[in-house]
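Entry for magnesium ion complex. Fields follow.
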Amino acid sequence: MSFTLAIVGRPNVGKSTLFNRLVGRRLALVDDQPGVTRDLREGAAKLADLRFTVVDTAGLEDAYDDSLQGRMRRLTERAVAMADATLFVIDARAGVTANDEVFADILRKSGRPVLLAANKAEGNAGQSGLLDAFSLGLGEPLALSAEHGEGMADLAQVLRPLI
Ligand code: GDP
Ligand code: MG
């Protein structure tokens, strides 16, 4: 059985961009507009010497109504249950939002391995968001830029002992 990593986080933080980078094919849709990707997508990931299954969670993008938090909870719980570890992504440029706190709460309570990543951290724009991320209580955040491929060696380093 392949090690499975689920990528979770609120819409627009760059989950699908990271998924595509790990899978190397455009299996997950990426769009500037919330509302494009759906539900869960699986792909075969390659990262340095590591090979594993990666799951992109979507299906939240069309849920900006009063059911958003319920959908977030259900989808995240499904992803966490099927995964050996979860990568929780926030937007380093936006900092920690109220919805990020909801995810963090779900993930802390899951009792499963969680890695925290602050994406869009290329350049200096993500510095304060990266520091903010410590407040989520999920350990040290990785600084990533899924779009520019930065932080991938650090991601491999934290994943390697889990796989
Ligand atoms: P998702 O909703 O979490 O799956 O996010 P997407 O992968 O669809 O990305 C949402 C937007 O963020 C798109 O416009 C991406 O091009 C952009 N994005 C993703 N990763 C990065 C990054 O590392 N840096 C910057 N600046 N933008 C990014
Ligand atoms: Mg997506």
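NOTE: Residues 23 and 45 are 5 Å apart (CA to CA).
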